[in-house]
Amino acid sequence: MPVATNEASTAERILDVAEGLVQVRGFNGFSYAHVAGELGITKASLHYHFPGKGELGEALIERYATRFADALGAIDRDALDALAKLHAYAELYSGVLRGDRMCLCGMLAAEYETLPEAMGAAIVRFFDANEAWLAGVLDAGRDDGSLAFAGKSSDAAQTILAGLEGAMLVARPYHAPERFEVAADRLLGTFAAPSGAPNRLR
Amino acid sequence: MPVATNEASTAERILDVAEGLVQVRGFNGFSYAHVAGELGITKASLHYHFPGKGELGEALIERYATRFADALGAIDRDALDALAKLHAYAELYSGVLRGDRMCLCGMLAAEYETLPEAMGAAIVRFFDANEAWLAGVLDAGRDDGSLAFAGKSSDAAQTILAGLEGAMLVARPYHAPERFEVAADRLLGTFAAPSGAPNRLR
DNA sequence: GTCTATAGGCAGATAGAC
DNA sequence: GTCTATCTGCCTATAGAC
Fold first, then answer.
1. What are the pLDDT digits (tens) for A28-81?
2. Distance between CA B105 and CA B65 in Å, rounded?
3. Which residue of B has its CA nearest to A157?
4. What is the pTM of this model?
5. Which domains, from first to last, does chain A contain?
6. Of the candidates A123, A162, A190, which has its C-beta nearest B167's C-beta?
């Protein structure tokens, strides 16, 4: 069992730097030289930890998806009402954008056609997991009357995911995170029940 | 004055091929070699028409924006009601996606941080023009009662643009254009006036 | 685990012949 | 306008010493 320490492992630090680079510049816009330079090690050392760029990319998505799933679990544990959960979800994106970054998987979705198959599959799994969580929140909210919307919750979940990813995408060229907030609030506002309070009769 | 002909000029054919490559693979995912190969000419010839990749990129956005503006003008001339105009606007995106392409400027927005300044500025102008047109349609629709929404029309326009760009971005990894339709219809549905008919009292 | 050294390929770009 | 030939630089990746 490894001893607990404040120092992150080299592999973790590589992932940290690479993650930032991909979220800002894209998978085709960063290189081993970028990562090695920022870490003060050589390109050859990177290949010891991640044999190729594809494997590094897979590890990046894997870790990002796990961290995201943990954040969704934390939102669930806070026992907020459905609308507050949706806003907490949007706040996750907001934090990413304030770091001048795009969602990792949103960025990779743009480059999808140039990526190794394994990375593409991992991206789809990330979106699926997010939509499943959103659909659960939407169903619960409609059941207790705190949310109001027509149609399938899975369709609504797709709309929310797409809206938030798009809001990040468009906000970045403006260097204006508030553009994201405006679009996110509007989007989520369309799901609030008219009364504003849960309907206790259902 | 040049004689009219069915043959596109070499510069135009370069733009055609490069446009497709950027919309599928991104600006950092295509090369002069790709374009030259598909056209059956050499890389050196490309440099005669476009001195550098940056200039080619600028020309790409310029032409794309002009074509988009023309399409918006055509929608205006069809004298549809506001909601129909919004759906016609979404249909523009739909057509791009059915060609397995991302919106050119949506793709470039992801890569924004790696692009020459002139390209970045042109991308912002594209988004600005789209939002201005959308805001005009939204204002007109609210005035004649065919649309209903709260807040500033410019904020609503941002939400629509972001939602459609995001819906394209997320739909592509699924190779499922219908995912776009679902999100787009839901998004635009939130702007329809409750009665469905124009309010003649305003 | 990290290094030096290097391979082999592809990138964007230029000079100059035709 | 398009070509051949070439340059320089960066890319991913590997071999092998320490």
1. 999 999 999 999 999 999 999 999 999 999 999 999 999 999 999 999 999 789
2. 9
3. B183
4. 0.96
5. 54-189 (1.10.357.10)
6. A162
